[in-house]
Amino acid sequence: MQNTVSNPVPEKNQTGAGVGTVPASVAMLKVIEAWGVDHMYGYPGGSFNSTMNALDIEKERMRYIQIRHEQVGALAAAADAKLTGKIGVTFGSAGPGATNLLTGLYDAREDHAPVLALIGQVPHTNMNYNYFQEFDENPMFADVAAYARLVMTPESLPYIVDKAIREAYKHRGVAVVVIPNDFGYVQIPDELYSSVSPTDQKDRPLPQPTDLEVDAVLEMVKAAKRPVFHVGRGIRDNGAKLVELSKKLQIPITVTGQAKGLIPDDYEGNLGMLNRASSKAADEIFAVSDLVIAIGADFPFANAIYRTHPFKFVQVDVDEAQFGRHHYLDKGVWSDAGDFVDKMLVRSTDAEPSSFFQAAVADMQNWQAYLDHLLDRETSPLEFEQIYREINKIANDDAIYSIDVGDNIINSFRYLKLTPKNKWVISALFASMGSGVPGALAAQLSFPDRQVFHIAGDGAFSMVMQDLITEKKYDLPIINIITSNASLNFIKSEQDDIPMNHSGIFIEDQDFAMIARGMGVEAVTVRASSDLPAAFAKALEVTQAGRPFLIDAKITDKRGIPVEELELKQQDGTWVETVNPSYNANRALTHISSVQEFFAEYDGGELKSLPEIFAEHNVPTDK
Ligand SMILES: CC(=O)OP(=O)(O)O
């Protein structure tokens, strides 16, 4: 009765090469391999040993990446999916191994990343007896997963995993398969996996815009005086076409967090991101726009930014369930972003040169000059800008960036110069602190020949720093840059913006270089900008030799200019810019009465207000 579930004891040294049969767990891995997956992240536990056995059998085809906390594995699988578009795979054993996955799985769900999570379960004969680490796992995953199933027979395991992968792709989300450990050892007929035939995801038919829809949008563009694009990750590799459209229709571009780099940062009409991580130009131009065309964009700050401005709103989205999610619709176009842009190019004629577009470009150039001026300074104690100067100096043109949550999101947006050759991974909607190390692991594993930067604050890094061990174990030559200022500085700024004392945001400073060295990773500490060139030269030397490196950059807790505090209103037919007083209630800036004072507070004497720039470009002030 060797092959029955009632006697699931594994044979030693199973090879998976039995005549016509194979362990169910091996059959499952072969399905996952057939979908083009070559590595998965996890940490073993007793309830997962049948799959660990299969991972040993399949080690030539499936690389097991041993992370040191399941949350890191789940976040890394999500990052794999965000970086490659292909499904990421992670696992955890029953009980705590399963619960530890949740943060990463929610991150995947929120950022529409297809992820398969395999969950260990006690042997089926022990289920429902309150057995060690046993609990009913499916209800817990019901919310995060688009598909969650408990495997009921060994023979169904390869099918259920294949189905789970299809569901994850279809919903661009999480699929969970819970596997009673004993089932994985059972020999099942090998045709149960060999009949699996993955579908090429690129062949998925995408909704197309009709001529009528595109013409209606073009009419709205003609009627608008200050149109703006807001572009998300849905634009994928069509950034160059959007630049062409932006020039042709004279419409400036703003982007979402995940779309950084998809439109070259050096395109003059790319104003960058909105809201707190924004450029001044993006926030200002968006605030005065009378037509927003959102293309493949999800935007978590819609209630703060979209709904507070009176513009007409066009939404172009590949997912018909997303329409109206962020703003009432003047026009919805159910379409792939690239196909929409293609058709807009074909059906439009060149717009007249627009003073509004020129003013948007000038506003961005003025902002860029301000940033360059801050980059060029020398500072001791170290401020954050010079770190970005050094990164830009040594970065390859196809470098990949994993940026953790906090001030580094704002600063990376402002100071890193990216093009579509680069890749960038963040935890955008779930904003999970601790996503930086996992993102870098995923980047270096999926793209072993490319340079990978990981930038994190001390708070975020200390949540996952044990996984420097993983960088070391697999010789992943990641450049880790920790900006440490013993403060949760992003949260400090939020507390500064409301009337409250600082509470709970100061954290113990650590010697992260010493911690890294303790884990076998070479590292240095820097305290002044003059230390940076040598530190980055060492980082290059070590990573080019195939080893990870860490720079612990001790920075001040200075806040970058909070451009989201600027407000634009029309008064007597002209635009007036002020600083929103409600932001300043509890800090030294309460005395500020003009935007010029506000700019000066942040070393921005050369910054111009938007009404000044509008005046220089004769932008009509009518409503
Ligand atoms: C979350 C947070 O405040 O991080 P940082 O200190 O890096 O800004």
Automatic annotation (TrEMBL):
InterPro entries: DHS-like_NAD/FAD-binding_dom, POXB-like, Pyruvate_oxidase, THDP-binding, Thiamin_PyroP_enz_cen_dom, Thiamin_PyroP_enz_TPP-bd_dom, TPP-bd_CS, TPP_enzyme_TPP-bd. Residues 214-343 form the Thiamine pyrophosphate enzyme central domain. Residues 404-552 form the Thiamine pyrophosphate enzyme TPP-binding domain. Its EC number is 1.2.3.3. Keywords: Pyruvate, Thiamine pyrophosphate. Residues 27-138 form the Thiamine pyrophosphate enzyme N-terminal TPP-binding domain. The keyword Transferase does not apply. It comes from the Bacteria. One of its GO terms (molecular function) is pyruvate oxidase activity. Belongs to the TPP enzyme family. NCBIfam families: pyruv_oxi_spxB (TIGR02720). This is Pyruvate oxidase. It comes from Amylolactobacillus amylotrophicus DSM 20534. The lineage of its organism: Bacteria, Bacillati, Bacillota, Bacilli, Lactobacillales.
